[in-house]
Design brief:
The complex is a heterodimer. By secondary structure, chain A is mainly alpha-helical. Helices cover about 70% and strands about 0% of the residues of chain A. Helices cover about 55% and strands about 10% of the residues of chain B. Classes of the chains: A mainly alpha, B alpha/beta. At the A-B interface, helix 6 and helix 7 of A face helix 8 and helix 13 of B.
Amino acid sequence: MLSNVTVFCFLASYVIVLACELIRWLKRSSLNRVLIIGLGCAGLVAQTAYLWNRGLQSDLPPLMASSHDWLLVLSWMAIVLYLFVSLMDKSLAVGPFLLPVVILLIVGALLVSDQPHTIMLGDPDLSVTVLRRWGMLHATLLMFGAGGVMAGCILGLMYLVQHRRLKHKQLLHDGLTLPSLASLARWNWWAGVISFPVLTLGMLIGVGMGWYKQQGSQPVSFADPVIIGYGVVWFVMLVMFFLLVRTRHPGGRQVAWWTIWAFTFLLVTVLGLQILTKGGVASLNSWHAHSRQVLPSSAFVARLS
Amino acid sequence: MNLQVLSCNHHTADLSLREKLAFSTEGDLHQAYRQLKSAFPSTEVVVLSTCNRVELYTAQIDEEMGPSRDEIAKFFSEFHDVPVDLFMNEMWQRHGVEAVRHLFQVACSLDSMVLGEPQIVNQLKEAYRVAQENAACGPLTNPLFQQAIRVSARVRSETELAEGRVSIASVAVGEFGRNIFDRFDDKLIVVIGAGEMAEETLRYLQAEGAKTIVVVNRGFERGQKLAQSFAGSAKPWEELDRWISEADVVVSTTGADQPIMTTSRMKALRKSSGRKPLLILDLGAPRDFEPAIAEIDEDVFLYDIDDLEATCERNKAARSGEVTKALKIIDEETNRFMHDVSHRATGPVIKQLREQWHRMQTEEVERVLQKLSHLEQKDKDYIAKSYEQMVNKMLHPPLEALREEAKSGTPHGLLDALRRLFGIGDR
């Protein structure tokens, strides 16, 4: 039964939830709220079942299995947060900001490879269990870091809408609220400041794993396009981090724009690299993004098969 | 039941008259209850006195008893030392179901000057508490006021009558201020002018937690008086620029003919204050701050009286749309209350009638069965059941008539007739 759940099931649910959220801005209705919560929960159940099924099929946790699964886990976390906030505060208009990002992540997941990574393959003497644990930590930290940047982006968008509304003396529709500018600016700043060290730690673990693999019989190169791309993303995050920390009283709008651009750059780079390394017209050759379909030679992959 | 309300409110009387008739302190109310109890010892009384209304609810089980309009007017006149002629035409009266409906409408703030305002239900609770303290309530006013409070809660939860703010000051603080700042206890509030609007806005700001308040007024003494009432400090007019540059929130309510703050002067002040958000509530008419000040930088939020009034009007319109829904609930609850009251009045008569007839039935069955002792048990049971059915069938028409009549109030005539016809005594 789990195998019948497809990406379309939860993607369709979230698209309808987004439509209901947009209707909420025009007309308040209790039926709408029931639909939002009901379909949101249905989508979450379907997405959980899908990820669970993927984990069973690949014998790997979703975070480590493939970029496809990694993006879906990130969107899953965002949906859990969305449903929690919606249940706690029915008037908070978070859906129109968060759901498009979720849908974007899921659509992005459809474009990238869904085959398990061969990142941990190579030296037969290598302890697969230890490598898996480090790989898990690497992927988790990167996901939380990216999640933090994503949260910053969503908060930034909310800040800009709230700021524009207050500057132009416009009112939100009855029964809808946004957090205050002060709260949004503070949360946005913290999202940016916390996510960078988490991303850095995740990157460092990745570098350590790469170095460890270099010592083995199948050394890997750091001059890999995906690794270079991620390095550039990290550098952009570093710049954002220093801008946030060094500017003692940055204007809220300024911080909002920084975080929006940072997340956009992160998403475009990650998705772009993953799409390009999946194959096609302008494919890049990367050991980091290789899947078992591309490199089916190792013992580890053979075991997974 | 004789329930009535005499009211002098904002629909009928102007403020000067309402002030004369108001019971402004709790001491006044206690004194009023003492006098009312002495004048009308068997009447339940509740006095509701707010700035918008002075209402006296009286209730008595006996339909014929209870104070008349003139007697109550005489009490008001003597208590406040105001001639009866001055307010008699402005004081209206409602009886029975209309009095109940009026109280429910008052509790739900349908009769308030500001539709949906939340204070009235607290004022009503307070009035009921004081009446209870003075042992002025009874079997009619207790359920009446308790139900009024419940109806108010029901209307608030089932309609959007209380949604959105509808006064200039509450919109300024609640709809705009709270969307800019998440707290006010660490903010410097600078008030320019010392009028009523400044006072009202300060009340809302203080309710939101504002602690540091500075009043800058041309007349220092008046500013000092306002500042003292909000535990703030007054500053001389010459220090206006300094305080504006330090402020987080500026409330301006002067009566100046020209703007007191020009764009160029404000630009200079913003340079010294840095880029912190500044909320300016320009409640002066004409405006105290030039509109272009809003464009100086992205962290200046300027709202004038027109901006705030537009929001008030929108919220008022939204509330008006809920009135029909609220009235429907009030009608439903009024009917329920009247039905309960009638049920309480008819209940004892119905109970006694049933008891009397069933006692007769039991005696008659016993007498018959003694004579027919040769019968088998199942035949005896059959006879007992037949007697019971006959009594129930005979009781049905008078009780049904009583229930039907009770739907439109206590059926005193029918109750008296039943008492006399069936020899039921008062309990």
